[in-house]
Write a structure and sequence with these properties.
The structure is a single chain. The protein is an alpha+beta fold and 1280 residues long. Among the domains are: 28-224, Alpha-Beta Plaits (2-Layer Sandwich), CATH 3.30.70; 245-304 and 316-438, Nucleotide cyclase, GGDEF domain (Alpha-Beta Plaits, 2-Layer Sandwich), CATH 3.30.70.1230; 453-651, 3-Layer(aba) Sandwich (Rossmann fold); 884-948, no CATH class; 1113-1166; 1171-1280, Serine Threonine Protein Phosphatase 5, Tetratricopeptide repeat. It is 56% helix and 13% strand. The protein has 55 helices and 26 strands. Strands 1, 2, 3, 6, 7, 8, 9 and 10 form an eight-stranded mixed sheet that branches. Strands 11, 12, 13, 14, 15, 16, 17 and 18 form an eight-stranded mixed sheet that branches. A five-stranded parallel sheet has the order 20-21-22-19-23, with helices on both faces. Helix 54 (1232-1249) packs antiparallel against helix 55. The chain is globular and about 115 Å long. Residues 1-22 and 1273-1280 have low confidence and may be disordered.
Length: 1280
């Protein structure tokens, strides 16, 4: 047949080789396919042939550059490999070359038959030419800079086909060594021959060198005659002996989809073959190789580790292994470590060194449809090989990530860090020793237990009932991460029971009694030592506790896995009776070891092996009538240990509002924005562990779509358990999102010939469910994310494009579908369609005040416009204005400022457009508290607009001047704020700018109020009415907020609450989370004044979290000051002082001098209430700061705190004088509440002075004041 054109063997839609299982021929060298005909029953044969070893230099550098691009770089690496090696493979095939080994950047070929030396040399020249052609194609990291060096040797070649149950082809001996040495001596572009090859070529073909090698002179060759020989027909049974079974199942039916996988990779090197071949001959080498490879295979098969490849190496060879490729399990790391440890513990005839690493790889076929290799590539693989190179013979070295994720514990010792090629920092490495047992799953152990009150009560009741003497069994069932072990730990607390935990592991289901080994050893006091010592320890304890059963101790050998010599009594026990006697011995062991309450916890019981399950069921039966409880903790599904009797507590998902509180609590130190909390709660679907891991992934990666590595394996394992067709359909469906229309799925996959019918969807019933007529949804969003995460980026892009076109064709409302279309076309790389749909989706979200969603769409639209390059300038400016506005409203200030900078560059040369972006910059700087920079922007921009008298220029000037007034207001510079706003009252009316009008009117009114003027509020009310009428939500929120302040400060508290609530609600509706938090802070202050402490704390926490998450520093500082006042009211004085100190420092940093004075007064109060009057007095001794008009409202409180400190110091006359001064100020300001606090303190001073009459008078005055303000809010009996 004709050699196929080179192409991506693993690409979506690639052709497959017909013939069912015989497709695997593309992965097996022809010499191995022919072996049983040429050398039946032998492990070794010698063939007269020519070996060609080609190494491509520059490929490692390319790999490292692409690795920096992450997963998409790994995909491009595979594409580049296919382009390069596909051409080389095709060239070699037509000249009879057989690929023996593929080593990433190196290839080993053998040429057999007539004229094999000449054909091999012609092929070497062809390879050099093919590389030049392939390297001409550019990559994302620049043009390829590759060269090839080739070594060629002819003569007797030693081949070995060894291993069981599958056989691996290995090339060893003098021919392999000579070929490798020739290649090593060659420089870039050079082909070097050994004498054995040069002698077989026509004279003058090669030029001799001093080192005994020969340089091939041929620069070009004549075209080959004929086609590549077809692959031989091979019986399926024989073929299956030449390829690992699990890998064959994956690769046999068709070329697999390329996949991103989280995998554990190992390299093992065996050595010593050259000397063995010289001294003892090929049969001895064959036997040693066969045993060594068979030991590896046995360990790999037991742990489901895949052998991906073998390769030649100096004086030996290498094995390339993976767990998690092609199939994931829930303990890929543990499986690999246990398998490799088992190899070293058993021993091999040839010395072995092993290195293990863990991380992301890209798994795909490389080559052509006729000859290919399956590999897992990426930095993870390269690092595993380098770790192996550091390990001495007989050692297992591993990266700490492997050890941390393994469910099995091992003895370890640090041996690194090692400097490695391509790594910026030395790589930590550990030597891995003996297995120590199962690791406790501590994920979520420290998290608070929330939303499980009923389940906790049920578990505790069952335990109490059992431990009170009746005995019993309890099953706690639920999905991973629902909190089963956490609830049990909480329920056991305080019950006074001895607790023993046995834990099953995924690999243990086929290992009888494995889960009991370590707990039973501990029960017998057995410590790790040599087998004889451990047996002696066990027998000593046995003799002490169960002397009447000592003769049966050998029956426990399969449980404790320690050799125990048989006794006459144990040797006669038939096999069928042994499990029952073992179970009886376990019950007796518990009875003799635990005199009172006892709880046996069986963790991960769904993985329990049958033998252990029988023992545990016997213990459960024996628990009846004893103060014992057997608690089975398991998933709801699966096999393992399932006890039918006893109560069963099922843990389902917890409610979203409860999970939201969990997320908020877990992120208290660095709060998330509300939309981020909502996104995590939605993805976690009631699972606390998922929520915790999603938060961690978001912190590490910065993406709400990031898949936590800790969950990858469990989720991938569920997807990988499907048959290839169903797995492909599920992965493709994931492109459509959590919920989708089946007609869209069918249309999307129509060009791929993927069936979307009832039968195919029915096979995915564990993953998909109906979601209304004609719709399906993923049962679990994390499964959807895992399926999507595994898709190759090129496949994703193709599918997204098909999905977008399908939605366009089927849509009845493109506006409603704009966000979906924007997503699909963006990920497909269709910039023209993305620009149209993203802009449409952004405006739709903006109208709905979904500012975070709108920001995503406008950013996507702008990125598409940049890529297109021909979008009109004014449209790019407009989309950036939209982006800045929604980002500012959503509190995404960094993104907003970045968009302003881009817009300013686009607006260069246009004064009004430039001013537009500067107005936006001013607003952001004001919110984040950079007032100086904001004022500089105003001054500069006003100067730019000065000569212009257009309507737009007048509107922009109005916004700038009203912004200046607002900034002065925020700085507490009320006179400047009043002057600036008063001068703009008429201007903003003429400009018709509602936003500027509202800002100016409310600033003018609040400045007049603070400065003590009367008759204020009319303009703020007018602003509120206008904003409500015009549906300007942000303006309405601000006006309602300011009016709320007026009502609060004049004692009209019910109206104040209503206005603050309106401000919060309207701001939240507008998506302005910062202003909603601002209104919340003032509402909290009012609630604090009314002594509604619990409600105040909740509102204040929400406001502080939103302020911190948004980066609104001044608001966060102000809210902390209020928190300090709340903590004083709660009696938490030390904490209050700490909070007030930080608040004062932050407020001063933002030039907020008046609120900083309020924080200082809170510090003084907390100190006085702790009895530290001298320090409190130091904070309030100077009244000068309160004499300014801006700080005058704090004067009554300053006198109050002076008087309180003087009372603590015993200076009663001075205290009374300050009370009187404070009362005069409070009455002048009309502040009933401050007057009440001062009157109450006067009573305390009078009591301290022994003046009962004055104390009684103060009490009467306080009662009158309460009566006056009672109608406006509940006042505590001691608000002071």
């Amino acid at each position: 047949m004709t050699a196929p054109e080179p192409g991506p063997a693993g690409a979506r839609g690639a052709a497959t080789v017909p013939g069912g299982a015989t497709d695997l021929r593309r992965h097996v060298p022809r010499i191995a396919l022919d072996w049983d005909d040429d050398a039946p029953g032998r492990t070794w044969q010698q063939v007269d042939a020519t070996l060609v070893f080609a190494d491509i230099s520059g490929f490692t550098a390319l790999t490292e550059k692409l690795a920096r691009r992450g997963r998409i770089g790994a995909e491009e690496l595979i594409e580049t490999l296919n382009r390069i090696f596909g051409g080389i493979l095709s060239q070699a095939a037509v000249r009879g070359g057989e690929l023996l080994k593929f080593g990433g950047d190196a290839l080993l070929f053998v040429f057999r038959g007539d004229d094999h030396a000449a054909r091999a040399c012609r092929s070497a020249v062809d390879m050099r030419t093919a590389l030049r052609a392939a390297a001409a194609t550019p990559t994302s990291v620049g043009r390829l800079s590759l060269s090839i060096s080739i070594g060629v040797h002819s003569g007797p070649v030693d081949f070995f086909l060894v291993g069981s149950p599958t056989r691996e082809l290995l090339v060893l001996g003098e021919a392999a060594t000579s070929t490798a040495e020739a290649e090593h001596a060659a420089v870039a572009g050079e082909i070097l021959l050994t004498t054995g090859t040069a002698q077989r070529l026509p004279g003058g073909s090669a030029e001799p060198r001093p080192d005994g090698l020969h340089r091939l002179r041929w620069r070009r060759t004549r075209p080959p005659e004929g086609d590549a020989p077809p692959a031989p027909a091979v019986q399926e049974a024989r073929l299956r002996t030449l390829f690992p079974h699990d890998l064959g199942d994956h690769l046999g039916p068709a070329v697999p989809e390329p996949e991103h996988k989280l995998a554990t990779i190992a390299f093992a090197r065996f050595s010593g073959t050259d000397d063995l071949l010289r001294t003892r001959g090929p049969d001895a080498v064959g036997a040693a190789l066969h045993e060594t490879v068979s030991v590896f295979e046995e360990a790999m098969n037991r742990e489901r580790v895949s052998l991906l490849a073998t390769d030649l190496d100096s004086d030996g060879g290498k094995l390339f292994m993976a767990s998690g490729v092609p199939y994931s399990t829930e303990d890929d790391e543990g499986r690999m470590l246990r398998a490799m440890r088992a190899v070293l513990d058993r021993g091999t005839p040839l010395p072995v060194q092993i290195g293990v690493n863990r991380g992301h790889v890209f798994a795909a076929e490389v080559g052509t449809p006729a000859r290919a290799a399956y590999s897992a590539m990426g930095d993870t693989t390269n690092t595993a090989a380098r770790i192996m190179s550091k390990a001495p013979a007989g050692s297992l070295f591993a990266h700490p990530q492997v050890l941390e994720h393994s469910r099995t514990l091992f003895a370890t010792a640090p041996v690194g860090p090692f400097v490695m090629k391509g790594k910026a920092a030395p790589v930590p490495v550990f030597a891995v020793g003996e297995e120590l047992g199962a690791r406790d799953d501590e994920r979520g152990a420290g998290a608070p237990l929330i939303g499980r009150d009923d389940e906790l009560a049920a578990v505790r009741a069952a335990l109490v009932g059992a431990l009170d003497g009746g005995g019993g069994v309890l099953t706690i069932a639920g999905a991973t991460g629902t909190g089963k072990s956490r609830i049990l730990a909480e329920a056991l607390d305080g019950l006074g029971a001895s607790v023993v935990t046995v834990r099953a592991e995924p690999y243990g289901m086929t290992s009888p009694y494995r889960m009991l080994r370590d707990p039973v050893r501990r029960a017998f006091g057995v410590e790790r030592a040599d087998p004889d010592t451990m047996a002696a320890q066990l027998l000593a304890t046995f003799r002490e506790r169960m002397p009447d059963r000592l003769a049966l101790a050998p029956l426990l050998e399969p449980v404790v896995m320690i050799p125990i010599p048989d006794t006459p009594e144990s040797s006669v026990v038939e096999a069928r009776f042994r499990p029952g006697l073992i179970a009886d011995l376990m019950v007796r062991l518990i009875s003799s070891s635990v005199p009172g309450r006892f709880v046996l916890v069986v963790e991960e019981a769904h993985w329990a092996d049958a033998a252990s399950s029988a023992v545990l069921a016997h213990v459960a039966t024996a628990a009846q009538g004893r103060p014992w409880a057997v608690v089975v903790v398991r998933r709801g599904e699966g096999a393992g240990l399932e006890l039918e009797h006893g109560p069963r507590v099922e843990l389902g998902p917890i409610a979203d509002d409860v999970l939201a509180r969990f997320v908020i609590g877990a992120t208290a130190a660095a709060p998330l924005r509300p939309h981020e909390v909502d996104a995590i709660v939605a993805r976690a679907e009631g699972n606390p562990l998922y929520a915790e891991e999603l938060v961690r992934a978001f912190r590490e990666v910065g993406s709400l779509e990031a898949m936590p590595e800790s969950l990858h394996a469990a989720l991938d394992a569920q997807v990988d358990a499907l048959d290839p067709g169903s797995r492909r359909l599920l992965r493709y469906a994931s492109v459509l999102g959590r919920s989708f229309r089946t007609e869209v799925l069918a249309e999307t996959l129509r060009e791929d010939d993927v069936a979307v019918d009832a039968a195919s969807l029915g096979r995915l019933a564990d993953f998909l469910e109906a979601d209304g007529p004609g719709r399906m949804r993923f049962r679990n969003s994390m499964i959807r994310d895992s399926a999507y995460d595994g898709l190759a980026f090129r496949t994703r892009a193709t599918l997204h494009g098909a999905a977008g076109r399908a939605v366009e064709a089927l849509s009845s409302d493109l506006d409603a579908d704009a966000d979906t279309l924007s997503l699909h076309f963006s990920r497909a790389g269709d910039d023209a369609r993305t620009w149209v749909h993203a802009r449409r989706a952004g405006r739709r979200a903006q109208r709905a005040y979904a500012n975070t969603d709108a920001a995503v769409q406008f950013q996507r639209a702008y990125d598409a416009a940049l890529a297109l390059g021909d979008v009109p300038l004014h449209e790019r400016r407009e989309v950036l204005v939209d982006l800045v506005e929604v980002c500012t409203a959503a509190g995404l200030f960094d993104q907003a400022l970045d968009a302003v900078r881009r817009g300013a560059r686009l607006a260069a040369g246009d004064p009004e457009w430039s001013a537009t972006f500067q107005v936006l910059r001013m607003r952001i700087l004001n919110v984040v508290g950079d007032y100086r920079a904001a004022l500089r922007v105003i001054t500069t921009t006003l100067r730019t607009l000065e000569p212009r008298d257009t309507e737009e220029a007048r509107r922009l000037r109005a916004r700038l001047v009203s912004g200046r007034a607002l900034i002065r207001r925020n700085q507490g510079q009320w006179r400047e704020a009043r002057a600036a706003s008063e001068g703009m009252l008429d201007e903003v009316r003429r400009a018709g700018d509602v936003d500027a009008l509202v800002a100016t009117f409310v600033t003018y009114d609040i400045a007049r109020f603070v400065l003590g003027e009367h008759g204020v509020g009319a303009l703020a009310q007018e602003a509120l009415d206008i904003a409500r009428r015009e549906r300007r939500l942000s303006g309405a929120a601000e006006a309602a907020f300011v009016l709320g302040n007026f009502r609060f400060l004049t004692g009209r508290w019910r109206e104040a609450v209503e206005l603050y609530e309106e401000s919060r609600r309207v701001a939240a509706e507008a998506g302005d989370l910062v202003y909603a938090a601002t209104a919340g802070a003032n509402l909290a202050e009012l609630l604090l004044t009314r002594s509604e402490l619990e409600r105040c704390e909740g509102v204040l926490d929400d406001a502080l979290r939103a302020a911190i998450a948004a980066g609104a520093g001044p608001l966060a500082a102000h809210t902390r000051m209020l928190s300090a006042r709340l903590q004083i009211a709660q009696g938490r004085y030390e904490l209050a002082e700490e909070t007030a100190v930080r608040a004062e420092e932050d407020l001063l940093a933002y030039s907020q001098s008046v609120p900083a004075l309020e924080a200082r007064l809170a510090r003084a109060e907390s100190l006085s209430r702790r009895g530290i009057g001298d320090r409190a007095w130091e904070l309030v001794v100077d009244l000068a700061p309160y004499s300014s008009a801006e700080a005058a409202s704090l004067l009554p409180r300053a006198h109050l705190e002076r008087a309180r400190a003087e009372l603590v110091l015993g200076r009663l006359d001075a205290a009374l004088a300050d009370v009187d001064a404070g009362l005069a100020a409070a009455r002048e300001q009309g502040s009933d509440f401050e007057e009440l606090r001062l009157v109450l303190l006067r009573g305390e001073v009078a009591t301290a002075a022994g003046d009962r009459a004055a104390a009684a008078a103060a009490a009467a005055d306080a009662a009158a004041l309460r009566a006056r303000i009672q109608g406006e809010g509940a006042v505590s009996s001691s608000p002071g």
